[in-house]
Amino acid sequence: MRIYYKCKKLDFESGGESIMVMREKEAENHGIMPGDRVVLKWSRNKSLIAIVQFTNSKVDYGEIGLFKEIWEKRKVDDEDIVGISIYSRPESVKAINKKLVGKKLNYKEIYSIIADISSDRLGVIETTYYVASSFVRPYDNQELYYLVKAMAECGDKFNLRVPAVDKHSIGGIPGNRTTMIVIPTIASLGLYIPKTSSRAITAPSGTADTMEVLAPVKLELDKIKQVIKKTKACLAWGGAINMAPADDKIIKVSKPLALEPYDKMIVSILAKHVAVGADYLVIDLPYGSTAKVHDLKTAKKIAKKFVDISKRFKIKTEVVISRAEQPVGSGIGPALEARDVLRVLQRHKLRPLDLEKKSVNLAGRLLELKKFCRKGQGKIIAYEQIKNGQAWKKMQQIITAQGGKADIKADEVALGVLNYEIHAPKAGRVKMIDNKAIKEVSVNLGAPQEKLSGIHMHCRLRDRIKKGQKLFTLYAAKQDRLDLGILSAKNNLVVKVG
């Protein structure tokens, strides 16, 4: 049975789920209870699964209220008419039950799970059970291959129809904005390198947050394709398009559970590169005591899985493993990281040399993987492109194509921001820089939501420090945020001098 209602847009967000509300008595007359799933259908090709909640004030009888996740995604207006029918239990639930008792899943079963997460047929509870199911019996490489394939197939793809290269960092290290240097460097040599990046979840900034300081990153798929056609590259936010849509929903339920992220990280990363049609891929995999991956043994296991699963998609992949016990670059936070990137590309005298060196190395490895040059020549070619200004020229083209202003200077990025300096309490050497403490202080300062907030580091590991010397500077857009950051810095040992 299908019943019809008028729609009303509500200014509420659920954080990801498709929620609709209706009058309690009216719902009970139709046998609908809170938490039930219903199919909302506007036309033959326009429908979705929503979760029902009750209200006695936000809508009238004969009317349903739609959370933002529904009316923004589906372009629904007030007064639109929608048909509602009860949704029966999907096949994906049976597949999750099968995995929970320790059995392996075939591609059809895994696809049903990912497809139903993508289209909101599965809610938070069912998705949480799916995430937990992998701990009864971890997915083997064949199942991980199926997961990557399903994740990519359930969303948009680029289909550039030309050989493409790509680069990805697993994240977890403050700063480390190598992507924004590697992409224009590679594109300046005539290679296609379409890049969709993520925003920060718990970190001070993601590549998309940092690029957004320079140009819009929330681009429609057609616009991204135009940028790529014009510049051979892009630096866009992946969340703005329907690429591997199940990924964000799985991440959201995994975070509170503090579950082992490595296999899901592999699936998340590779699905996006399958979707963009990458043929060659370099993955930056840092490890260290305060990184996502804590030891070299684990890093090598993860690297092997990346390479093995990539082969099944005919993606030639190299994983660059490096030890990381401190930030890469000087700036942490969107604007300060953008300043670092511009300083490298614009050959500024204060450019962070560690960020430059790492970017050159990753770009060089990608050139060699593509067989653009002989082994050992990649770094030389990459460095020359940065040194002679061709990488910056290409970055200006990308910024312009995405709707930004390409004449921006590095030192203009963080002008007029409040700051507070932290000084060394004693003389000695820098014995430790705590990446986790840096993240916590930066988030208290307002990063990544407030672009100007963050930390600028003035010291590196093993530097000799004088008493009273600047260790790092806090930046914030507003005084109340700066005060919170100062309090956080006093309660976190960011730099240990001894």
Itemize the secondary structure elements and their pairings.
Blueprint: E1 3-9, E2 19-23, H1 24-29, E3 37-43, E4 46-55, E5 63-66, H2 68-74, E6 81-86, H3 91-100, H4 107-118, H5 124-133, H6 141-153, E7 165-169, H7 179-187, E8 193-197, H8 207-211, H9 221-231, E9 233-237, H10 246-257, H11 262-275, E10 280-287, H12 296-312, E11 316-323, E12 331-332, H13 334-345, H14 353-369, H15 378-387, H16 390-401, E13 418-423, E14 428-433, H17 435-445, E15 454-457, E16 464-465, E17 470-476, H18 479-490, E18 495-497
Parallel strand pairs: 1-5, 2-4, 7-10, 8-9, 10-11
Antiparallel strand pairs: 1-6, 2-5, 3-4, 3-6, 12-15, 13-17, 14-16, 14-18, 15-17
Helix pairs in contact: 3-4, 3-5, 4-6, 4-10, 5-10, 6-11, 6-12, 7-14, 7-16, 9-16, 11-12, 14-15, 17-18
Defining traits:
Barwin-like endoglucanases, alpha/beta, 4 domains, 18 strands, four-stranded antiparallel beta sheet, Pyrimidine Nucleoside Phosphorylase, Chain A, domain 2, 498 residues, six-stranded mixed beta barrel
CATH topology of the largest domain: Pyrimidine Nucleoside Phosphorylase, Chain A, domain 2
Estimate the strand proportion.
15-25%
- Give the C-alpha Rg: 24 Å
Give the strand tally. Answer: 18
* Helix content estimate: 40-55%
Structural description of this entry:
By secondary structure, the chain is an alpha/beta fold. It folds into four domains: 3-86, Beta Barrel (Barwin-like endoglucanases); 91-138, no CATH class; 165-237 and 272-401, Nucleoside phosphorylase/phosphoribosyltransferase catalytic domain (Pyrimidine Nucleoside Phosphorylase, Chain A, domain 2, 3-Layer(aba) Sandwich), CATH 3.40.1030.10; 416-497, Pyrimidine nucleoside phosphorylase-like, C-terminal domain (Aldehyde Oxidoreductase, domain 3), CATH 3.90.1170.30. The chain is 40% helix and 20% strand. The protein contains 18 helices and 18 strands. The protein has a six-stranded mixed beta barrel. Strands 12-15-17-13 form a four-stranded antiparallel sheet. Strands 7-10-11 form a three-stranded parallel sheet, sandwiched between helices. Helix 12 (296-312) links the parallel strand 10 (280-287) and strand 11. Helix 6 crosses helix 11. The longest helix has 17 residues, at 296-312. It is globular. The N and C termini lie far apart (73 Å).
